[in-house]
Amino acid sequence: MADPISDFFEDLSQRKHDPRLSHVTATVRFDIVDGRQTDSWRLVVRDGQLEVEPGDGAADATVTAERTVFEGLVSGTVNAMAALLRGELLLEGNANLIVSVQRLFPGPPGGRSPRTIPAKAGASS
């Protein structure tokens, strides 16, 4: 059975670079809680270059979530900022990183990027 969380981090690892994070240099640890077990992943970003590794360790920010919440993040059915405000995500460290890292999670299924929505007639750019 496929694990959406492992698949998400594997995809990030394969990407190697994300231009949306070209201004970010930081390490973010994700602690995913499933009952008594916690799985950790570290994301190291250096000017948009991505390195992903399983395991815990020092980080500029740590994001902690129940497995079901994190599965929602990686599937696009849960928004990271909304989950943070609801207390479903816990953040320790540099709070600004959640805004940047949120860009790595997919949008809602069937949603469209603002860049793909045609401008209204008569609207100026």
Automatic annotation (TrEMBL):
Signal peptide: none
Disordered: annotated segments: 106-125
Residue intervals of the SCP2 domain: 11-105
Pfam families associated with the record: SCP2 (PF02036)
Database matches in InterPro entries: SCP2_sterol-bd_dom, SCP2_sterol-bd_dom_sf
Coiled-coil portions: none
Name of protein: SCP-2 sterol transfer family protein
Organism from which the protein derives: Krasilnikovia cinnamomea
